What does this fold into?
Amino acid sequence: MPPIPHSFNSTLRHVAGTVLIILAAFPLCVRAAPPSFAESAELRDLPERWAPLLGEFLVPGVAVGVIKDGKVHAVATFGHRDAALSRPVTSETMFYIASVTKTYVASAFAVLAADGRIRLDDPVRKYLPRFTLPDAALAERVTLRQLLSHEPGISAFPIVLLDAYTGEIDDDRYYQWLAKAQVAGRVSYSNVHYTLLGRVLEAVTGKPWGAALDELVLKPAGLNRTTASASRLYADTDHASPLRVTPALAFEATPQRKTDATMHAAGGMGASISDALGYLAWHLGDGHLDGRPGGKPARRAELVREMRTQQAALEKPRGSIRVTTGFGLGWQVGSFGKHPFVAHSGGYPGAVAYYAMLPSKRAGIVILMNAGQSAGALADVIAIDLLNRLSGESLAPELLTNYRQRMRPEVQKLKAEPMVRPDNRLTTAQLTAPVAALAGEYVNPLWGTLRLTADQDGLRLRLGQLPLNFTSAEAGVVKLADEPLSGQALTLVPGMEGGKARATLATREWGDAVFERR
It folds into this structure.
């Protein structure tokens, strides 16, 4: 990859025009050029403050937008959407938005409830007869509302691994792992709540969850640059590639990249900044913007307000600037200074997304990035800047200074001692047996398929669709490098005396997963 040019910061000052979805009356929508930050007296200086920070925080591309009083107030785009830094981010660039997907799923439930197709206080078992937990009595009582507000605290690492990373989930595996799930018995954020809701959505509508979202939320709102399809997202000519920093301080594609198999109802959508702002307009308008025949506007408005009203409280508030006290339906709720505050973030290798609203100010913000690592720090700076200006607060004025102090030594270290990239290829010197004795497909009924593929006198490792990078390999024990398996060990044992070769993945809380070669 080419190194970041000396003029990198200056190229990041590119501020593109955008296309606005004006959601004043649905289903009619008009696309027009929106105001830029330069046209906003309260925000016009911010792009100049942010543009140099992309270089400092090693972020390739960013889209930022603000909505006020039902209209787009300002949009700015910075940097690039590709590793070669040749394609600028535009207002129509689609970014992967990760866990912000949960709010869209919750919105679909609000529409279904408003139309009388479900009740939010219905038990989950009404729609999913196979729903079970280690506590069978609890499984009988859990409701849709409780899942939407993360009240039960149901977690199961194998479900997340198979759903979000390897793509090898199916109903049998899902429900077998669910029967072994950990249940906190208190409010606790979890992907499992929303992968369950995705299955409910499919049961109610008879469609895949993404197609149901399209019908219930996206099409009525005119959001045609939003999708639950990775194929559509990454085939689009204007998409942001998920990127990471190389040892040479350039950018390259992340080894993990979403596919249709790993797009799920807890984190499986892409959106442009223009569409994301249109989505917030729907929320800030209390759902009145959907004029589908047969809809119930009053009930819709009530439910959309419920989405941003606390349904389940955390044991203790989290955060000191943006304070989260609990969950509404899909959204995290709390306060920013003296103002009610609603938000959701999303992150995955090569992606950061952040949506937030100040309902009392009828204002919202969206930040989209095609980087992970230190990109979250830049998203924090941009978010606090915007929320301060929109609310009239002056919280955390030292935030940027603090982040810079943390970041500069890291960048200097990278320049002086380039990072060692975890490997994905076991060499013959690292193997305890010939390549042919280990290469092949290994299967575990609950964990899926592990592939050891011969490659230039070595082996490459993949669990389903997840490449397995590693930091060390010695005596047949491979130490895995990347999330969600970072630090865990994979042991390879060749077949002896006619026995089958096997591989054992030692998981921290779920025991050893033994894979046998076919």
